[in-house]
Amino acid sequence: MNTPSGANASTSNLLRRRVRHSRPVYRPGGTVAAATVLMMLLAAPAYASVTPGEQFVYDWTETAGPQVGLTGTVDFTLGAAATTPGFFSISSFAISQNGGFCGVCTPLTENLSSVLFDSSTLGLAGDIKGSFNNNKGRLHTYDLVTMDLPSGGWTFADTGPGGVTQTSMGTYATRVTTTGVPEPGTLGLFGLGLLGIAWRRRRLGR
Questions:
Q1: Sequence-separated contacts (24+) of 3-12 with Cβ below 8 Å
Q2: pLDDT by residue (tens digit) across 41-68?
Q3: Residues 6+ apart with CB under 8 A from 46
Q4: Which of 5, 24, 47, 67 is CA-nearest to residue 182?
Q5: Is 190 left (phi over 0), alpha (psi -120 to 50) or beta?
């Protein structure tokens, strides 16, 4: 039996529509999800967590005392986690290093039991006491009181021979020198990788 030409055309059009509809339909959910993850990673804090053994630098500036405007740096290392959540002890704080509070001196003793590191602000709170010999070999004792960030203030009392105490004050900021967590740049690259995977899946699904 012959089929009218109009019927053939209708059947052909129907088959083409079915073929088009049978193609995988791209759903943007994967790309949107990857983009959301990327934005969350890039918006994360510059420093997410700390662990014992990490090293930081304490950059200080004198604002009151005999040498206003003087600056220096002190390296310090985190110790074990303290009983207070989010705080850590300090295993080293090189007050007597070159660029430290005592200038050119020889370290003798240092007591770090009364100072803690705040992981939420990267600040130090408490006081550090110790002793050193100045560049003439004379004994000095010191007491550094440091306040938590963001105020970031400190007072350094240096008691030399004869019991004369010289006090200076200032501000400080801290910066990390070693880290055990991914930096934001690394996280951003990871997020871009997710976007690339989603885009490739979209191309293959066409």
A1: none
A2: 444 444 458 899 999 999 999 999 999 9
A3: 184
A4: 47
A5: alpha
